[in-house]
Amino acid sequence: MRWLGFGGGKNDSHAPDATGDASNSRDAPERGGNDASAESPARLPAVCPPPANSSEERRRETLDDITRFLLDNNLPISPFTLDTAHDIVTGANPVLAALVAAHVEDDQPVTVRWLEDVVQAQETENGAAQLHALILRLETTVDEFANTASVARTATTDYNSALEAHVGDLGAIDSGGGNVIQQLTTLARDMLSRTREVARELTRSERETRTLQKRLADARAEAEIDHLTGLPNRRAFEARYNEEYAATRDSGEPLCVAFCDIDEFKRINDNHGHEAGDRVLRTVAQSLATMSDEKCHVARHGGEEFVVLLRDKLIEEACAVIDEAREMIAARRLINRSTDVPFGRITLSAGVADVHAYRDAREALRAADDALLRAKDAGRNLVLKADPPDHPD
Predict the structure, then answer these.
(1) Which of 3, 100, 120, 239 could cross-link to 65 by cystine, CB 3.0-4.6 Å?
(2) Which of these three, 198, 223, 248, is where a domain ends?
(3) Is 164 designated active site?
(4) CB < 8 Å & 24+ apart, contacts of 340-343
């Protein structure tokens, strides 16, 4: 499986050398012998194979790896599979390559449908990231404009008041003919009229800016929601996790994180279809969401995996909360309403980590994920506490 980066190379024994070197041909004449110096018919100079690091050789290897990937996984030849295979075997998409490698290591088939789901999820995540960044930039710009407009309106209002006072003073002056004073008064009144119009425009701009700020806030909230389950998505969780980590580190409050994964979810999709699987995801999400409050944050982390952030809970308390949710979900008996066929028992496995027991926030997430994998290996439908860190406090 060279396309997964395991062994192989340009000297793989399963494929003949594509350079055309006569020494590798089964029909090549035997070398050596007593007639080595004998005259032979004139022939074209031999073409030396390109060096191993040449661009042609690399292209050949890439084509070989793409072909092998498609054949090994019994995938059809199409623009989608060719493009996806290229990204996998060349490492152009390292995340996708890692997902495929893990899928194969788990003895799971790499199908077109599975690849489509993974690629679509990646594109959705990338699109959400770009949208989130754009919204943040827009919010910053709008906030700056709102501040500028507010300052300008205040200054204009103050200027209007001062100008009105000056106009009144000019009108009170008796200068005989009054021609110059009259001209100054007219000019001042004209300036006052114009500044009043500017003030009205600035007030209107402020109202429009507040409306735009609200719409941007709504758009950002929309970008942080998982639309299948209605829970916050992974991006929203990451932001909340970083905030809670910093706050509890400073305050000394406990903070725990738990990864929860639906057991044998692939069986549900295979036996009942993806639409039914989506309904199961929504049901589990609703059950987990009942835990949510100002100190408990539940999000969909991706696929059939959820993440729970528990503030002001010691590790034993956090495990008890997650285990209670596991028992509640396992007690339900769900039926596929499209076919009236029971789904069977739906269970969760989970891993829980004490966040501040580890060097940093990322290490705590890895510890919780490792505990989840141990729960799966131990038979599923289980909540396990993460191993303590392998370094002194």
Answers:
(1) 3
(2) 223
(3) no
(4) 341/272, 343/268, 343/272, 343/276, 343/280
